[in-house]
């Protein structure tokens, strides 16, 4: 259990970020949900009543340094420490590569890659002062295997994987771990419906991943995998290992 530990999750108003927040809360941690959506405050309040630790919600924009700094300062004021961070905020424009506009690319990379960079930089500086910390970034299966239409998104997520490795090496001797979890086909409010229905048959396990299953991996990597750093853990039902076709009927 994680009593007296503090976990901060970005992009936590819904989907994967919310699921990871619930998992940390169920493990007894104090949990800070952050999101650019003001609804994150109410989401956190509803979870607070169900958790043994304290759960709060903060409005934070991962693309703005001042917003990140203010959120981290508030966490330290209230809790006096920060043990785990899940950098999950992201999104992107999905189009065939040559149809991507400069704006599409800049928007996707600015949110996913640059936003994660800004968060990591601020978090690592905080961890250096307190002498410990664990970061888990949200990657993507697209870093290893992807259908078409993910050019800008995959560029950003591959960059996150590279930053994870670089920061892990830079601060491995400072009691700071930096890892990445790359989800596969996960059912969330953002990709429910036709996309899930179309992609599920391509997964060797023949089903999608639940947010609850994925959240357990994030918590494990953040808290239990104490000799792991610089790694990307793929949780994809076997997709990156290969495609499984049905055997022909005799």
Describe the structure.
GO terms for molecular function: oxidoreductase activity. This is SDR family NAD(P)-dependent oxidoreductase. Belongs to the short-chain dehydrogenases/reductases (SDR) family. It comes from Lacticaseibacillus hegangensis. By secondary structure, this protein is an alpha/beta fold. It has a single domain (6-236), classed as NAD(P)-binding Rossmann-like Domain (Rossmann fold), CATH 3.40.50.720. Helices cover 42% and strands 15% of the residues. The protein contains 7 helices and 7 strands; from the N terminus they run E-H-E-H-E-H-E-H-E-H-E-H-H-E. The chain has a 7-stranded parallel β-sheet, sandwiched between helices. Helix 1 packs across helix 7 (211-223), helix 3 runs parallel beside helix 4 (102-130) and helix 4 (102-130) runs parallel beside helix 5 (151-171).
Give the mean pLDDT: 92
Largest sheet: 7 strands, parallel
Number of domains: 1
At CATH's second level, what is the architecture?
3-Layer(aba) Sandwich
Order of helices and strands: EHEHEHEHEHEHHE
Total helical elements: 7
> How many E strands?
7
Keywords: Oxidoreductase
Enzyme class: oxidoreductase
Pfam family, one: adh_short_C2
Organism: Lacticaseibacillus hegangensis
């Amino acid at each position: 259990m994680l009593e007296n530990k503090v976990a901060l999750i970005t992009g936590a108003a819904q989907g994967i970020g919310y699921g990871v927040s619930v998992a940390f809360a169920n493990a007894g941690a104090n949990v800070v949900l952050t999101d650019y959506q003001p609804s994150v405050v109410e989401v956190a309040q509803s979870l607070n009543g169900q958790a043994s630790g304290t759960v709060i919600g903060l409005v934070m924009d991962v693309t703005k340094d001042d917003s990140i700094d203010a959120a981290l300062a508030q966490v330290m004021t209230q809790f006096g420490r920060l043990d785990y961070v899940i950098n999950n905020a992201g999104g992107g424009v999905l189009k065939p590569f040559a149809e991507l506009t400069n704006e599409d690319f800049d928007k996707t990379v600015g949110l996913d890659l640059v936003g994660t960079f800004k968060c990591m930089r601020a978090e690592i500086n905080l961890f250096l002062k307190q002498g410990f910390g664990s970061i888990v970034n949200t990657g993507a299966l697209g870093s290893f295997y992807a259908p078409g239409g993910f050019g800008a998104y995959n560029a950003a997520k591959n960059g996150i994987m590279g930053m994870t490795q670089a920061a892990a090496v830079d601060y491995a001797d400072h009691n700071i771990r930096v890892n990445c979890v790359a989800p596969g086909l996960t059912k969330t409010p953002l990709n429910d419906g036709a996309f899930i229905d179309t992609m599920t048959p391509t997964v060797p396990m023949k089903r999608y991943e639940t947010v609850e299953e994925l959240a357990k991996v994030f918590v494990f990597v953040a808290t239990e995998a104490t000799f792991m750093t610089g790694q990307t853990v793929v949780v994809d039902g076997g997709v990156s290992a290969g495609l499984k076709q049905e055997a022909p009927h005799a």
